[in-house]
Design brief:
The chain has 262 residues and is α/β, with parallel strands linked by helices. The protein contains 4 helices and 11 strands. The structure holds zinc ion. Zinc ion (ZN) binds next to helix 4.
Length: 262
């Protein structure tokens, strides 16, 4: 009895088998998770009924999405290739028809067709169309839609709006120092070719020279903004003050009204 107790109390006698089985369990769990994640990623495209119907029309079992750079400026394009399909349905040689070195690797080598058996090779023309970016709040990813004959439309799902930081899912309230009223959040177009965020005291609107405008009277009105860290952004969330806008508009009217008299 004493021996048994001391064995139980001795951590070294227990820890070895426990940690081993835990290690094995973790390994198995990791494998299972990977398999689930992998089949989920495959089934996202495969479960779209339209997608499936279109693929069936072409005898295409699966396609693979290409790696796209999700950090660069938007680009669009179209890419074609003659693809050799082996009797077992796998892809052999790929002969690009579009001369475009900058087009991303299309992963067509990983596509699989319905096996026809025999020994005859088939040649098919595959088209990949890179569509415009789609705005997304999620992590950047690649979207795809398959269309017969053998055309894969792909697009990047990226943030096209440079958003203000959220606190508990909401944009924190700010007040105008001049008018002491709550600022509103507006979507402003991005001013290209400029640096800096938040917007400096320029608004990109033609009219009186900006330095002539008493910005201290209306500090929170802007017509364009700067995209910040995201080169893909086309719109920017920005704090603006309705009273600042009224004050600026009134100032401009008064300023321009004086000009003919000068
Ligand atoms: Zn204001």
């Amino acid at each position: 009895m004493r021996v048994a107790l001391s064995k139980l109390a001795d951590p070294s006698s227990l820890s070895a088998p426990v940690s081993l089985s835990l290690f094995m369990r973790l390994r198995i769990m990791r494998k299972v998770t990977l398999v689930i994640l992998f089949s989920l990623s495959l089934s996202i495209a495969a479960q779209l009924p339209d997608d499936q119907r279109e693929r069936a029309r072409d005898g295409l079992r699966t396609y693979a999405l290409p790696e796209l750079d999700l950090t660069t400026y938007q680009r669009t394009g179209r890419w074609e290739a003659e693809v050799e399909v082996k009797p077992d349905g796998s892809v052999g040689a790929i002969h690009p028809l579009t001369e475009d070195d900058s087009f991303p690797e299309m992963s067509i080598a990983k596509w699989t067709f319905l096996p026809l058996g025999g020994t005859k090779l088939r040649w098919r023309t595959v088209t990949v169309v890179l569509e415009k970016d789609a705005d997304s709040l999620e992590q950047p990813s690649v979207g795809a839609r398959y269309e017969s004959p053998l055309t894969l439309h792909i697009w990047r799902r990226v943030a096209l709006v440079a958003r203000l930081p959220r606190v508990d899912g909401r944009i924190p309230e700010k007040r105008c120092a001049v008018h002491d009223e709550a600022l509103q959040v507006e979507l402003l177009p991005v001013a290209r070719g400029c640096l800096g965020y938040p917007p400096p005291d320029t608004d990109g609107v033609t009219g009186p020279p900006e330095e002539a405008e008493p910005r201290e009277l209306f500090p929170n009105v802007f017509d364009v903004a700067f995209g910040g860290a995201s080169p893909r952004a086309t719109k920017v969330e920005c704090y603006v003050c309705a009273s600042c806008r009224r004050a600026r508009d009134a100032w401009r009217v008064a300023h321009q009204a004086r000009q003919p008299a000068q």
